[in-house]
Amino acid sequence: MNQNHANPCQPRAALRVAAAAVIALGLCQSVQAQVPGRFYWKSLSGGSAVPLIFESVSGNTNPFDSSHRVSAGAEFDATMAMAGYAQTFSLFDRSAMAAVILPMGRLSGEATKVVNGASVASAQQSASGFGDPMLEFDINLIGPKAQKTIPDAVRYEPGFSLDVLADLALPIGEYDSKQALNLGQNRWYGRIGAPMVMQIGSWVPGRRTTFELLPSAWIFGDNTNYVGQTLKTDPLFQLDAHLTRDFNETLWGSLDASWYNGGKATINGVAGDKRNDIAYGLTIGMQINPNTSLTFGYKSTANDSGTNDMRLDSFMITLISGWHPIIEGSRRLKGE
Amino acid sequence: MKKRTSLTVIAATLATLFAASAPAQTPAKRPNIVILLGDDLGFSDTGAFGSEIKTPNIDALASDGVRFTNFYTHATSSPTRSMLLTGVDNHLNGLGNMDEYTAPNQMGVPGYEGYLSKQVATLPQLLKGAGYHTYMVGKWHLGKAPDLIPAARGFERDFTLLDGAASYWDMTNFTAVAPKSVFTEDGRYLTELPKDYYATKTYTDKLINFIDANRGDGKPFFAYVAHQAPHDPFHLPKEWRNRHVGEYDQGWDAVRQARLKRQIEMGIMPAGTQLSERMWFLPDPTVLAPAARAIQGKKMELYAGMVENLDHHIGRLVQHLKDIGEYENTIFVTFGDNGAEGTDLFKMIAGSPGSRDYLFAATAWSQTHPNAWGDPGSYVGYGPMWAQVSMTPFSQYKGWMAEGGIRNGLIVSGPPVKRAKGSINNGLMHVADIMPTMLELAGASYPEKLDGKTLPPLTGKSWSKVLANQAESPRTEQDYLGWEIFGNHAIRQGEWKIRWQHKSFGKGDWELFNVVKDPAERKDLAASNPDKLKSMLALWDRYAKDNNVILPNRTMFETLEDQLPPRVPDDAGYPPLIYKKQFLPPKDMLAEPKP
């Protein structure tokens, strides 16, 4: 019964929670449109984040163009970096986020030229520069209201959250119509999705567990100058799943899976095969400090031993820095 | 008119004759007795005493019975419990000081054993001898050795936490040298707890089983339901944690004001009652940032959940007694054991970095995230600000002799209560009164000797006439009450109270209050009323002598003055600087700067 009355109202815990919430803003929109788990966790409105994403991909098709055909025996390698900016805000009392991502990098591989549905030649090609920038808008429909204040952030638990998201890629990335392998796609495309987060158990750092799903549909415009031909691509259904779990307050991991179905490409009226592939992976995430988080992930396609099976594997590293004016100001006042 | 009067007289006469002859034909069934004790439950924490916390089951007992607004406990747990169970002053029954804080000059002195002395008789012991079944569930805090546990002190069945506090979920206790809570069941020390253990629920389940096991043998029962709730840590099932989200962000002052307003409307406190000072080291919550208010508010949300969960399980017990037809024949006595807890116990328990207790806390009690509050391994209390709310409108809290430390809300219902249902009484009551009251109502008596030992005289006075609406108080204007713990001491007689408290909660000197006119103890009248002070001091001397009070030469408060900021008045709105809002000039005088 010592009288421990000093500073009984220090908001340290609140600031700590809120600071962590700001960094929960994960943003790493891959051109291939696969994001790590915890991407759609909500954070304090008015927060900002800059993601830096490094991705190394290897396989037998161009991973950045879903219309690209599998080439038997071909090898593709890509080294990509992506930088972006995201802002969280409140819209109709719901959590919302707007972001822009700009891919850049280089890729190389054996591209097959297709004429009237037949492969007529293959050649080693490469591309580098900037890809198609992508705009993303996400708004929560079911789940906790927007975190407009620090108390909201302190009290945030996702429970079951359902968002709707819209992506739109702007066809201004580098594109060479003379070759099949490009960073830009020379067409409009985008997707509609419904990210879901299901909280399992307590929402306590060190013990958080979630099951997350992201069903989405990609819709592609036509590329009227695809090596001198017209490329049409059917809608592509994508389902991402993540089972994420904290190991401790700063380290988490997830089991990842993705399934793509559809996206049949038609070149000058000659239809190819639709995609139907599954990939599995692992991600490790780490909170380096209240402003910075890091993830490291690996993913590989399953059932890819056949000659014409899609085969891809990728390493992805994301480094995300986030901030919020209130949190930063409070930290300055405390001299941290 | 005359004829009607005659009929009334005849009817009354017949009723009297019938009533008088009834016992001769069928002996009156003796009432069951249920003591419902909340640990650190504050005066104003139930709806019946003005709280916004939802306690429908406790409120129903109040509606069916009578509430007492001048009921006194002791300032801390084990002294109160010792007097409840013995009717003897704590300085004579072994709890002259809490076991945890026995001072060097009190060591080895009879009355200061730190456990319930074997020189005193207990209520269950005497009721058992009078033919009652005697059950206990919950917290004991009166000794752990085999000859001191409930089974050795008169309880026929028990499921008991012997410690003063513990986890509600498991056997985790607080310090490196005593890391494990000690439980007994029917006199045996438990090696593990039942599956699905949660203290408040399990205690209730066990008691219901005890009652059912002996149903039908015609014997009444005495049940001592010494709930651990709502003592910190605020451990609470998830479904009870979020019933008041954001409601307490308004801060402690607003909640205190709202409670006092309801208390005045309900008649718990008289019109014109003031709130006590906000403790001088606490901020005005309105000047705090929303984050700070949210975190502090969440603590009170949890506390409210603790009280509501407690009320829920009390409701389960009451409903069970109704289901088995025993409710109408049961006396319920409901109150909190002392003032609400304003001290940060966990800081004290965890020690400082580098200590063994700190290491223990790091492994067993480190779930500090607000979302973990309520889980096993979390430790959250609610601090002095909310303790003051729990004790509205009184001053200070547990451990102190201010009204906020020793005054509690008492509810009594059941067969002996002949007062109007739901009524309020202001008689001067004391926890030591329970022993003589229940002995009388059970048809038992307090012997001069027990097992060859002369028993100390009872301190308390029976409430039977008050309950029967034949008196307004068990005490005359000359009777007085006395307290001492940790060196803080006090006397109340009639409207007057003197108290001596360590600085800075007190002055290190005597203070005099008229607690009827000034229940918040805002105005010290010692200087202006020396005669009254002198006469009250004489009572203190008498109390100390009669009860062998030895003021401790060491206490937990001995360095308190150095730890706290200097005590200053709590003048509302001072300093104006922090309340002055943005000046808004008249719109018609606004202008852009000239080029």
From TrEMBL, chain A:
**Name of protein:** Transporter
Q: Report which superkingdom the organism of origin falls in.
A: Bacteria
* Keywords on record: Signal
Q: Tell me the leader sequence span.
A: 1-33
Q: Which organism is it from?
A: Uliginosibacterium aquaticum
From TrEMBL, chain B:
User: Which residue numbers delimit the Sulfatase N-terminal domain?
Assistant: 31-444
- CDD domains from the xrefs? PAS_like
Q: Which domain of life is it from?
A: Bacteria
Give the matching InterPro entries. Answer: Alkaline_phosphatase_core_sf, Sulfatase, Sulfatase_CS, Sulfatase_N
Instruction: List the SUPFAM superfamilies hit by this protein, alphabetically.
Output: Alkaline phosphatase-like
Record-linked Pfam families? Sulfatase (PF00884)
Q: What is the protein name given in its UniProt record? A: Arylsulfatase
